[in-house]
Amino acid sequence: MADTNTLARSLHDTGLAAWFGGSLMGAIGVNGAAAEVDQPSQRARVASAGWGRWTPVNAAAIGTHLIGGALIVGANKGRIAGQSGVATWTTAKTVLTGAALGLTAWSGVLGRKIAAAGDVPVEGGTDPAATTPPEVASAQRQLKVLQWAIPAVTGAILVVNAYMGEQQRPKEVLGGTLRRFLPGTS
Asked: Mind giving me the DSSP string for the chain?
């Protein structure tokens, strides 16, 4: 049987796809739908309920992505050390992943703060009303930015993945390895 990384790549990619897609759908679907609720005091509850249902799935997706990524790094440690450019892109992807984790965690903290406030009047999931309590309004304004930052950063990870996949073409592996050990080689 061939030595492949199919399981690791599947975990990595499906986890990231769910993280990206779920975040984007939440920004558009969950937060947008909450604004359609007739009672302003129920809108935050609706958004919080939607995000509350998604949170365990998102956590599993993120964990799946991280496990797959760790397995891929382990399987490619020789390329990371020996092929020019791979370590740089691995570092960039790690930094982006850390940023996405931080943004997602902060989003969760803010979401819990809004949910804990109870039935307060809001315009939508991330839009305060004039009568929204200041601490909830502040959390909503931060979430308004985060709802787009998370899919932007996870989308950037998808783009980096695509580039890193190109680095695995035989011609790129050979050229990158030669450049690493024989500077001036193309």
From this structure: -----HHHHHHHHHHHHHHHHHHHHIIIIIHHHHTT-S-HHHHHHHHHHHHHHHHHHHHHHHHHHHHHHHHHHHHTHHHHHHSTTHHHHHHHHHHHHHHHHHHHHHHHHHHHHHHHT-S--EEETTEE-TTS-HHHHHHHHHHHHHHHHHHHHHHHHHHHHHHHHHTTSHHHHHHHHHHHHSTT--
Phi first, then psi: what are they for 128, rounded to 5°?
Answer: -75, 155
Quick: pLDDT tens for 146-164.
Answer: 999 999 999 999 999 998 8
Q: How many CB atoms lie within 10 A of CB 119?
A: 12
Domains of the chain, by residue range, sit at 7-173
Residue 122 CA to its chain's centroid (Å): 27
Q: How far apart are the first and last CA of the chain?
A: 34
Q: How far apart are CA 30 and CA 144, in angstroms?
A: 12
Q: List CB contacts of 14: < 8 A, sequence separation 6 or more.
A: 61, 64, 65
Tens of pLDDT, residues 113-142:
999 999 999 999 999 999 999 999 999 999
